[in-house]
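Lecture 7 notes: from sequence to structure.

We start with a single chain of 287 residues. Read the sequence below before looking at the structure.
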Amino acid sequence: MGQRSEAPYQAGLRHAVRSYSFQTLTALGLMSMLLAGCQGTGNSGLTTVDLAQASSQNIGSLTAVIQANPRDPQGYNVRGSAYGKAGRYKDALKDFDTALQLNPNFYQAYSNRALIYRYMGDNAKAIADYSRALQINPQYDAAYIGRGNVYRLAGRLDQAMADFNRAIEQDTTNGRAYHNRGLIYQARGQHKQAIEDFSTALSLQSTAPEPYNGRGISYVALGDYDNAFDDFNAAINLDNRLAESWANQALVYEQRGERDKASKSYMRAVQLDPNYKPAKDGLARTR
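Now the structure, written as tokens:
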């Protein structure tokens, strides 16, 4: 919501990895394991408020503002975003509904509500709200990005690509437009274009680990393991709690024949996410 969207980058292409040696893995198998951690999205879209504002104390403060100005739709929009950050989706929907009753042309509230619908698994309502936001304001880049991500995760890549292109045509400064378009290029095997988009995303949001993981995967696909390794390490340095970053690093160690280091990185990935199959399979290979 606001100028960003899903924090998530949820896993999209999870392929089983057989337990034979790394040297026998095909390039497709390697890409499948890496892509398992790169295709997702999270809840960073609720950016009308900072994450800290999702605390009970700050939600209470926002409630006091609403009580003082009950006819101001912006107050409900901001508190709805805070509820969304806190995972209180039903409360968030109520606030966005109220904001839109007070101002039916509040396109940001439509976009924010769309993201909540997406988190709740109602993609049809999410797309309808993003589309309504764009009817009101055809230049609203956040809605193109949000709707494009719903399309991308549903496998509707042509529609997703069109939305990301529209956001980029608006001169968006939101790195997610480039990151998500890069994921589509990557899925289509267009890795040079993917690397360009991931690099642009990093120039716009240099503290996000996901574009580093994405670019690293495309470097692997092109056989550039040194640059891939640098990117996976950068992702870990930015956020050492992402299992896929450790598993990606481990794959490069494994490719280099450094099985002990690979095993340690796979172990770290499994500790972070015991259900992350690429890490579990990698650990089984390198123990």
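The chain has two domains: 1-43+175-287, 45-137. Keep this in mind for problem set 3.
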